[in-house]
């Protein structure tokens, strides 16, 4: 089955189920199949409405022939966009260290790393990155969390800003506690969140 046929079937199925964002993303991609932004939009929309990996992984495989270019485009969109959930979710499944490296190449700086455990899966390594700092306010903020066994992104986040309680914070200091404003988070196998305000706490890994 060709990718065009798959997309048309996906569009029809999504429309019938009332998943209009997926239907629209598929229709737009059919008009310009090589457009990376439209490819990102489709993968992100499928994750947002709750499709599991076995449903959208064929599209990720089709579109991510050059994974580094895919990551860079997603991150470039997230530099300025506070509400681009689709670009964020499209980082899921990509190589974690590569994602961090490309983000640093775009000007982001690592502020902290941490590990957290999952019940029946390997630990997740999270790198908190920021583009600029103004006193205790870091903005924008990215969190890249990847599986420590497969090294694939499983938990990613983006916020307009992180406001720290430590007014004397300097690069290299522990972030401690604070609050994220206008934050988004995407997880595998599923999970999509948006919040106006979210408590933040970290520690060194």
Strands of the largest sheet, in order across it?
A: 1-2-3-4-5-6
Outline type: elongated
Question: What is the ordering of alpha helices and beta strands?
Answer: HHHHHHHEEEEEE
- CA-CA gap between termini: 46 Å
Describe the structure concisely:
The chain has 205 residues and is α+β, with helices and mostly antiparallel strands.
Key traits:
6-stranded antiparallel beta sheet; 31% strand; 2 domains
Write the layout of secondary structure elements.
Elements: H1 3-17, H2 20-31, H3 36-48, H4 53-63, H5 67-80, H6 85-89, H7 96-105, E1 109-116, E2 124-134, E3 137-147, E4 153-164, E5 177-187, E6 192-201
Antiparallel strand pairs: 1-2, 2-3, 3-4, 4-5, 5-6
Helix pairs in contact: 1-2, 2-3, 3-4, 5-7
What do these coordinates show?
- This protein has 205 residues and is of the alpha+beta class.
- It has 2 domains: 3-63, no CATH class; 95-201, no CATH class.
- Helices cover 39% and strands 31% of the residues.
- It has a 6-stranded antiparallel β-sheet.
- Helix 1 packs antiparallel against helix 2 (20-31), helix 3 (36-48) runs antiparallel to helix 4 (53-63) and helix 5 (67-80) crosses helix 7 (96-105).
- The N and C termini lie far apart (46 Å).
- The relative contact order is 0.12.
- The model has no long low-confidence stretch (mean pLDDT 93).
């Amino acid at each position: 089955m060709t990718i065009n046929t798959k997309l048309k079937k996906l569009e029809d199925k999504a429309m019938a189920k009332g998943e209009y964002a997926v239907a629209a993303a598929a229709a737009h991609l059919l008009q310009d199949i090589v457009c990376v932004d439209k490819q990102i939009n489709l993968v992100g929309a499928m994750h947002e409405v709750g499709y599991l990996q076995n449903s959208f992984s064929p599209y990720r495989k089709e579109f991510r022939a050059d994974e580094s270019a895919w990551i860079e485009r997603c991150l470039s969109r997230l530099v300025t966009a506070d509400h681009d959930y689709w670009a964020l979710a499209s980082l899921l499944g990509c190589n974690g260290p590569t994602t961090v490296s490309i983000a640093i190449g775009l000007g982001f700086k690592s502020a902290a790393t941490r590990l957290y455990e999952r019940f029946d899966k390997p630990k997740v390594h999270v790198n908190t990155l920021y583009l600029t700092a103004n006193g205790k306010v870091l903005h924008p903020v990215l969190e890249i969390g990847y599986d420590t066994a497969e090294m694939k992104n499983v938990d990613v986040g983006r916020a307009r800003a992180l406001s720290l309680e430590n007014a004397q914070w300097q690069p290299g200091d522990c972030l401690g506690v604070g609050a994220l404003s206008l934050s988004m988070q995407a997880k595998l196998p599923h999970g999509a969140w948006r919040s106006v305000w979210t408590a933040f706490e970290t520690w060194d890994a």
